[in-house]
Amino acid sequence: MKKALLTLFIIVASLAARAYDYPYLVFQTTDGTVHAMAVESLTIDVSGSNLVATNSEGSQTFALAELSKMFFSESVTGVEEMFSPDGGEVDVFAVTGAHLGKFAKAQEATTHLKTGIYLLKSKSATIKIVVR
Length: 132
Description:
Blueprint: H1 2-19, E1 24-29, E2 34-38, E3 43-47, E4 50-55, E5 58-63, E6 67-73, H2 76-83, E7 90-94, E8 99-103, H3 106-112, E9 116-121, E10 126-131
Antiparallel strand pairs: 1-2, 1-6, 3-4, 4-5, 7-8, 7-9, 9-10
């Protein structure tokens, strides 16, 4: 038990040390929605089945079951561009590499896809999405 707690403490400490390099912590939900919060004065609490992130700008609550990713970022605009590639046409691929079609926008593609994991490729970016 002590080893597990010590390991967890070391991981949290190393993440905290790296957080100073990035001004934003980004939360991505399983539906692809992205929320960025300033790291300055940020606190994160787990309450029941929810994660509550609070800073000087306000508070965001996320259901743990719907939270797919958290990561640090240098800019909010870079994150938005990464998760909604240039607003232009996107090619959709299955994880097996099969081309499933071309859509006018990334949002249009996600509404037509069945449950699963897909790759969306635009002129400027390639992203992995999960459709539930």
